[in-house]
Design brief:
The complex is a heterotrimer. Chain B is mainly alpha-helical. Chain B contains six helices and no strands. Chain B folds into two domains: 1-78, NADH-ubiquinone/plastoquinone oxidoreductase chain 6, subunit NuoJ (Four Helix Bundle (Hemerythrin (Met), subunit A)); 123-162. Chain C is mainly α. In chain C, 74% of the residues lie in helices and 3% in strands. Chain C has 26 helices and two strands. A two-stranded antiparallel ribbon of chain C has the order 1-2.
């Protein structure tokens, strides 16, 4: 608990799970959830390094920024997904391939 | 005691995250994400980051997760709660991400970290506030503009053609 | 440079006729009156400019008067050609001659060539000729002189062959051109010899390095000088290349006056005068002999000719021989003086003959007689009353050419004969030169008066056309009167000498001989000193021979107290030699052309039967075989194997790689992650 390795272990686990989700999921919302996991993993790293670097608050500021970005990204992504659904009646990423044709 | 609590929180976080990416029911995934986010907030507490932990719960659980559940509801038929969604290339993806994790693990265990210890602060809120309005004023303003833009964009996008 | 009229005016004189040529050759047919006014206007302008230059020269009255300008044409480091003009007294006098005679010809032709089929082309070619002649006159280097030299040859070719429908005219133009080419080759060799030794084309550096005596001397210089003189032999119609000039009379008579009497044939003499400093003593001896032989041979030939223009043509050759003789004996200013006076009276003689021929032609036309030769003197006689202006003008010029005092020819011919006599006095071995010179002078007087008597005196030989003979119109008599007047001595001895037997005057003062650049030759002063000593003897002798020649002509053709027929019978072979022009053409034909043609034929046989059939065709076959093999290799090996193989490899690899491009975002992401893994592995191990 007092070593940084445990936190880094957890965050890397979280990152890989999020990556796995992004790679494997077909549903756009599920992909989005994978992205959230990756962002959380990054946040944990920021805060962990902040603590073990003499409680440098800069890391906290960064994670705050990331949280704000995540919120903005989620909002825009969900708006796009709902638009895609309205137009194509599906939210499978594979089906949204209009440009390919 | 604290160690035990830490590992329990860590286990909950990892397990629920695994559930998020492996489960076939979208709505279950969303609920499992809730636990993951709470777990991460708990980890923040262990990292003496009380403000970030609060923000985590406030924004993620209160905002993003609700948004995700709304999204799920809006894009599926309400009557069937079991919204199934299939996964693809799970085999290859699993192998690749597993090896990716192995390498990360090797890297972080072998890295010669050199850290200085620090005294636990009374609270981080004050310091964060001061930093945001002094050193990080410009990024703060830019990120707020970005948030505003995203808000307007999301609103415009979801309003549709009308 | 632009502000200096002594440079700009000569340039204008040079290029105005060229402009006229370009305008007329392209647009002549469309202009009113076929554009003759363009040609006449431009040439009269050049004449006025030349007169201005001449007046400038006279007011300056400076023997060393000289201007020059040049521009760099080719500059390749070591090899450098500058084109430039040189304006000194010699140039100005020559420009005046050229533009004056050219203007007269243009005006004379207005009437003479009226209604000709190629009227505009005729005037265009006259412009081209005047341009190139001025080019020779103004050149300050051998290259531009040579270019103009060739252009003169071309315009001569074009104008002799003006009536190319006539076979004789076409042949004559070809003959003139080819004969000139023979001389020009020598000219070119001479230029190259000089250039290879001296490394310059411009006159003054050449003279400088010759007088230095190190760059070129002795035999080489003699050869170079003779090569350059060969150009003059061709152009000035000297023995043995004199055969083209009599034939060139096939051209229109004004052209004969302009080119084949006054200017173009004088170009060779002008060139010799210009380049006099480069001739060695040996070269000058050769030149003197060639001149003397030409003078006597042509004079002898002229005695028996019946065509009025042929007589004048041989007379021209003979007079040119005199000029070349003068160059050879060192009194080259006398040669130039004779060039000047000869240009005036010989051009006038040709105009007068043109006037007579014109009138004969009309009369024959009236009588519907198209077989009689209008140029044959045997058909003339007694024209004196019908054509008084032509008669008196021609008489004056004849007196001039015969060397009678009061007239210009006396002064110049006397100067030449004095120089020749002085040369023989200094070198007694060369006694033949004055002998030939004086004989030629006597014969000249004789045959010229024969011409006058046969044409204008006596009884009309063709009474049926005599009533239609009449004086020519003003366009023709104008130049005749002008040039006839210029045969008087007074125009050449102004402003301080009115003595008809002394040759002092502006010419003598302004055209002074220069020293030869060749080390060890006589200085100009020595030469004129010797000539001065011989002067009175020469004058007496020349007066005597002129009188003898005229007297003989009077006796034979006016009084007819000596029968020409009996005399010709007595000297039978001489008569036939002269009548047949010493069989030059026949001998050239037999000993030069025919063997050459046979050689050419056999070579062409060799070329065609042997070289072409076996060598060239063999190569063709070999090439075909090679190309077949190479084609097969090309198609089967390169095309099918290499090129198509590349295509196939591309297609296969493309088909394979296409599978990766699924269009699925997540596949790509997977590849990215896998790629990062590979990089990590590569870095770690």
């Amino acid at each position: 608990m007092d070593s940084i390795n445990s936190y880094l272990f957890i965050s890397s686990m979280l990152f890989c799970l999020g990556l796995f989700g992004v790679i494997t999921r077909r549903n756009a919302i599920a992909v989005l959830m994978g992205v959230e996991l990756i962002l959380n993993a990054a946040n944990i790293n920021f805060v962990a390094f902040s603590k073990f670097n003499g409680m440098n608050i800069d890391g906290h500021i960064f994670s705050l920024m990331v949280i704000v970005l995540a919120a903005a990204e989620a909002a825009v992504a969900l708006a796009i997904i709902i638009n895609i659904y309205n137009n194509m009646n599906t939210i499978n990423i594979d089906d949204a391939a209009e440009l390919k044709r | 005691m604290a160690d035990l609590v830490f590992w329990i929180i860590a286990a909950v976080t990892i397990m629920s995250a695994a559930f998020v990416v492996l489960n076939n029911q979208l709505i279950y995934s969303a609920v499992a994400l809730l636990f993951t986010l709470f777990g991460v907030a708990g980890l923040y507490v262990f990292l003496w980051a009380d403000f970030i932990a609060g923000i985590q719960i406030l924004v993620y659980v209160g905002g993003i997760l609700v948004l995700v559940i709304f999204g799920i509801m809006l894009t599926n038929k309400i009557k069937s709660v079991r919204i199934s969604h299939k996964s693809m290339q799970q085999g290859v993806g699993g192998v690749v991400t597993f090896w990716f994790f192995i390498f990360l693990f090797i890297a972080l265990t072998k890295a010669p970290w050199a850290f200085s210890d620090a005294v636990e602060p009374v609270g981080t809120v004050r310091e964060i506030g001061v930093l945001l309005l002094t050193d990080f004023l410009l990024p703060f303003e830019i990120i707020s503009l970005l948030l505003l833009g995203a808000l307007i964009g999301a609103a415009v996008l979801s309003r549709g053609e009308s | 440079m632009i502000e200096n009229p002594m440079i700009t005016f000569p340039l204008l004189i040079l290029f105005l006729p060229l402009v006229s040529f370009i305008v007329l050759i392209f647009f002549g047919k469309k202009l009113p009156r076929q554009g003759d006014w363009v040609a006449v206007g431009s040439i009269v302008t050049t004449f006025i400019l030349a007169v201005y230059l001449f007046v400038q020269m006279l007011t300056n009255y400076d023997a060393n008067f000289s201007h020059g300008a040049s521009l760099s044409w080719i500059d390749m480091g070591a090899f450098k050609i500058d084109l430039g003009i040189l304006v000194d007294n010699l140039t100005i006098v020559m420009l005046l001659i050229v533009t004056l005679v050219s203007s007269c010809t243009h005006i004379f032709s207005l009437e003479y060539m009226k209604g000709d089929v190629r009227y505009n082309r005729y005037y265009a070619y006259l412009g081209l000729f005047t341009f190139s002649m001025n080019g020779i006159v103004l050149a300050d280097n051998l290259i531009s002189m040579y270019m103009s030299w060739e252009l003169v040859g071309v315009s001569s070719y074009l104008l002799i062959g003006h009536w190319f429908e006539k076979d004789s005219a076409a042949n004559a133009s070809k003959k003139a051109f080819l004969t000139n080419r023979v001389g020009d080759i020598g000219f070119f060799i001479g230029i190259m010899l000089l250039y290879s030794a001296v490394g310059a084309f411009t006159f003054s550096p050449i003279f400088d390095s010759i007088s230095g005596g190190e760059a070129i001397a002795g035999m080489t210089l003699t050869l170079a000088g003779l090569g350059i003189f060969m150009g003059a032999v061709g152009k000035s119609s000297q023995f043995p290349l004199h055969i083209w000039l009599p034939d060139a009379m096939e051209g229109p008579t004004p052209v004969s006056a302009l080119m084949h009497a006054a200017t173009m044939v004088a170009a060779g003499v002008y060139m010799c005068v210009r380049l006099f400093p480069i001739f060695t003593a040996d070269a000058l001896t050769v030149i003197a002999y060639i001149g003397a032989i030409t003078a006597i041979l042509a004079a002898l030939t002229a005695i028996t000719q019946n065509d009025i223009k042929k007589v004048l043509a041989y007379s021209t050759v003979s007079q040119l021989g005199f000029m070349v003789l003068a160059v050879g004996t060192g009194v080259y200013t006398a040669a130039f003086f004779h060039l000047l006076t000869h240009a005036m009276f010989k051009a006038n003689l040709f105009y007068c003959s043109g006037s007579v021929i014109h009138s004969m032609h009309h009369a024959l036309h009236e009588a519907h007689d198209h077989d009689t030769d209008p140029q044959d003197m045997r058909n003339m006689g007694g024209f004196r009353e019908k054509m008084p202006i032509t008669y008196y003008s021609m008489l004056i010029s004849t007196l001039a050419i015969a060397g009678v005092p009061l007239f210009s020819g006396f002064l110049s011919k006397d100067a030449i004969l004095a120089g020749t006599l002085a040369f023989a006095q200094q070198n007694p071995g060369h006694f033949l030169l004055p002998l030939l010179g004086f004989s030629a002078a006597a014969i000249t007087a004789f045959y010229m008066f024969r011409l006058i008597f046969m044409t204008f005196h006596g009884k009309p030989n063709m009474k049926n056309i005599f009533k239609d003979i009449h004086e020519s119109p003003k366009e023709m008599t104008g130049p005749i009167v002008l040039l006839g007047a210029l045969s008087f001595f007074i125009f050449y001895t102004l402003p301080n000498n009115f003595n008809p037997i002394k040759d002092k005057g502006w010419f003598k003062d302004l055209i002074v001989p220069r020293n030869s650049a060749v080390p060890g030759s006589l200085t100009a002063n020595e030469i004129s000193e010797y000539a001065h000593h011989a002067h009175y003897l020469a004058m007496g002798l020349s007066l005597f021979v002129a009188a003898a020649g005229i007297l003989l002509a009077v006796l034979m053709y006016q009084r007819q107290s000596i029968s020409a027929e009996k005399l010709s019978e007595k000297f039978g072979f001489l008569y036939f030699w002269s009548y047949n022009k010493f069989y030059f053409d026949e001998n050239y034909n037999r000993y030069l052309y025919q063997p050459f043609l046979r050689l050419a034929n056999s070579i062409s046989w060799l070329d065609w039967e042997f070289y072409d059939k076996y060598f060239i065709n063999g190569f063709g076959k070999l090439t075909k075989l090679f190309s077949k093999i190479s084609g097969k290799f090309d198609y089967d090996g390169i095309d099918q194997g290499l090129v198509d193989g590349f295509g196939r490899v591309s297609a296969v690899s493309g088909n394979f790689l296409r599978n990766i491009q699924t269009g699925r975002l997540q596949n790509y992401l997977l590849f990215v992650v896998a790629g990062i893994l590979v990089i990590i592995i590569a870095q770690a191990f």
